[in-house]
Amino acid sequence: MLLIMGHSCTMNQWRPFDQQLANAGFHVIKFDNRDMGRTQRFDDILAEPEKCMSSGPNPLEGENDISAYCISDMADDAVAVLDHYGVDKAHIVGASMGGLICQVIGVRHPSRCKSLTPIMTAVNLNEAVGRGMAKDGGAFMGKLMNTTSPPGKDATLQEFLDGKLKHWHMMMTDPAWPEMDEDAIKQFRDSFTADYKRGGFDYDGRGALRQSLAINEFERSMLASHLEGLKKLSCPTLVLHGIYDPLIPIESGRELARSIPGARIVEYLGGHHLGNHPTVRDTIRSAIAEHLTAAESM
What is the CATH number of the domain that holds 222? Predict the structure, then answer.
């Protein structure tokens, strides 16, 4: 099983799902996407990505953006990880932007996929985010951006965690569970402490900007062919999506499921996260395990 995390996140944000899935009998592989964690940063290719992005709050503005790489390159990176470990075929699981990468692997490298599990994602991420903004007039996005600021190279661990907690409190809470539960907070602190201790954090925010540009480039140049590719997928696919997701609304997850022949969708009580309550996390984990087990028997 290959786990692919989302925008501006590292492989550590899969904790504790990775260990729980391994305990269920799966061989779990995870890695850092480009510009995150301890993998390659692309400062030498695009040192000041903020100067290469269209200005304005609307994520749909991006016609003149310049990118260092594309989502398709990130999908090829994931397959290269499988190559490194000598894995011919794997279950591909991705969250948010990682869910888009998961889809692209299915389209570009179908022979490498035992199954696909895109989580809280969409066929067209920018369009989905625009849909979410239209629902509340951009209120959530505005508040979220106000909590997002680079920690800087010299940030202490506590400063780093405090900044992350403000951001993720908004992402984790939802109408069903309006406060982060104690387990979620502990998992949050453990995963981001690991990032800090290994020096694996996006200290200046430019890695995240380059990932945004990669999404824009993919949707500008490859979206049409990607949509056609999804229609031809024969790989067992499970779509997971939180019904309260304010960033990528549930409607976008449903559209994704309809775009893939035979895909099944499981909707859970949550927002743009992997569960803010033990019962929700159990639902997600069980759905993934059942999907992968069924795909193994096909």
Answer: 3.40.50.1820
Q: What CA–CA distances, in Å, run from 142 to 51, 57, 58, 136?
A: 21, 8, 11, 10
Q: Classify residue 187: in a domain, yes or no.
A: no
Q: Which is nearest to 275 in space by CA: 82, 98, 137, 119? A: 119
**Spatial separation of the C-alpha atoms in residues 147 and 220, rounded to whole Å:** 28
Domain assignment of residue 152, yes or no: no
Number of domains within the chain: 1
Q: Which helix (H) or strand (E) holds 169?
A: helix 157-172
| 156 is a domain residue | no
> In sequence order, which residues have a C-beta less than 8 Å from that of residue 206 and are 6 or more positions away?
35, 43, 47, 48, 49, 50
Closest C-alpha to 251, from 158, 134, 149, 160: 134
- What string of pLDDT tens digits covers the 298 residues of the chain? 999 999 999 999 999 999 999 999 999 999 999 999 999 999 999 999 999 887 654 444 566 789 999 999 999 999 999 999 999 999 999 999 999 999 999 999 999 999 999 999 999 999 999 999 999 998 988 888 888 888 999 999 999 999 998 888 888 889 999 998 888 899 999 999 999 999 999 999 999 999 999 999 999 999 999 999 999 999 999 999 999 999 999 999 999 999 999 999 999 999 999 999 999 999 999 999 999 999 998 8
> For the CA atoms of 36, 159, 153, 32, what is the dihedral angle to 10 degrees?
-10
